[in-house]
Amino acid sequence: MDNNVESVLLYDEEGKEIEFDVLTKLDIKDKEYVIVAPTGEEDIDAIALRIEKDEDGNDILVTIEDDEEFEMISEAYDAISSDDI
């Protein structure tokens, strides 16, 4: 995924398109992740997604379901977020 991407469009369970701001991109253990938050929504938590490639080589965003992987990403994001303060 291009480091200059500022927002992405994702779809909810009903197929409604929602714009998300890309807060940061992380490279951890040879995997890429993005942290996103709904555009204009300040009271909604950020979401971590893993970047994978589809069969055509295009980037796709995948929900992280493994608790250990999610915790690793959360800790990395918290560390860089606290550095920004």
TrEMBL record:
Which branch of life, at top level?
Bacteria
Pfam families attached here?
A: DUF1292 (PF06949)
**InterPro entries under this entry?**
UPF0473
The entry sums up its family as follows: Belongs to the UPF0473 family.
Record's protein name: UPF0473 protein HLQ16_10880
Instruction: Give the organism, scientific name.
Output: Clostridium estertheticum
